[in-house]
Amino acid sequence: MTEQTQIPETENTETTPETEVVEEVTIESLQERIAELEGMLKDEQLRGLANEQNLRRRHQEEIQAAHKFAAQRFAAEMLTVKDYLEMALLDQSGNFDAMKMGVSMTLNELQKAFDATQIQEIASEKGSKLDPHRHQAMHEVEAEQEAGTIVGVLKKGYTMHDRVLRPAMVTVAKAAE
Questions:
Q1: CA distance 128 to 77
Q2: Strand order in the sheet with 150-155
Q3: How many Cβ atoms from other residues are within 10 Å of residue 157's Cβ?
Q4: Which domains does the chain have, with CATH numbers?
Q5: What is the Cα–Cα distance from 21 to 38, expressed in whole angstroms?
Q6: Which residues have a Cβ under 8 Å from the Cβ of 125 and sit 6 or more positions away?
Q7: d(CA 94, CA 23)
Q8: CA 153, CA 149: separation in Å to the nearest integer?
Q9: Three-state SS at 11
Q10: Residue 105, burial from CB neighbour count under 10 angstroms (0-12, 13-18, 19+)
Q11: For the CA atoms of 20, 24, 27, 30, what is the dihedral angle to 10 degrees?
């Protein structure tokens, strides 16, 4: 068998200058690496904040543009209506039937514009129940109808995408005394 030599446990437990240098370099390099990683993390945080600010700014600009040009489609539809009304005012012929036909054509163009932009009349038939979300009672009159029902329409109401633009102004039957 081969003889094994054992190193006594009490032998040289002190650190030599060479091992201290290795430890110091290791600690220094680790500290440098930590500082480098912290710098990279800080840089990433700043980039993330900059991206977030840019997204917010772009989103705000898009909202402003949407508000600014929201009526553009409807306005384009209204140009034809305006043209027809101006032509009617320029007509010097005195022909009432021609004027009536021109107004009718203008109303048709207006209805096309309403259809294209989903503007619809609020139903307000005589005898139907008053809907406080869609109707505005202007007068109460005694009538042979049930109280709270519509007797007549003073001004038509309109909605756009189920949102009330203007409530229908109606006369309502009041309860008998």
A1: 33
A2: 135-141, 168-173, 150-155
A3: 21
A4: 119-177 (2.30.22.10)
A5: 25
A6: 150
A7: 108
A8: 11
A9: coil
A10: middle
A11: -130
pTM: 0.60
Instruction: Tell me the DSSP string of 106-133.
Output: HHHHHHHHHHHTTEEEPP--TTPBP-TT
Closest CA to 73 of 119, 121, 105, 113: 113
| Residue in the block written with tokens 């010097």 | 92
Q: Which residues pair with 172 in a beta bridge?
A: 140, 150
- Tens of pLDDT along the chain (177 residues)? 455 555 555 544 555 555 554 455 588 888 999 999 999 999 999 999 999 999 999 999 999 888 887 788 888 888 988 988 888 888 888 888 888 888 899 999 999 989 988 899 999 999 899 999 999 999 999 988 888 899 999 999 999 988 999 999 999 998 776
Residue 111 identity: Q
Q: Which residue, chain included where needed, has tokens 């032998």?
A: 11
Alpha carbon 59 to its chain's center: 11
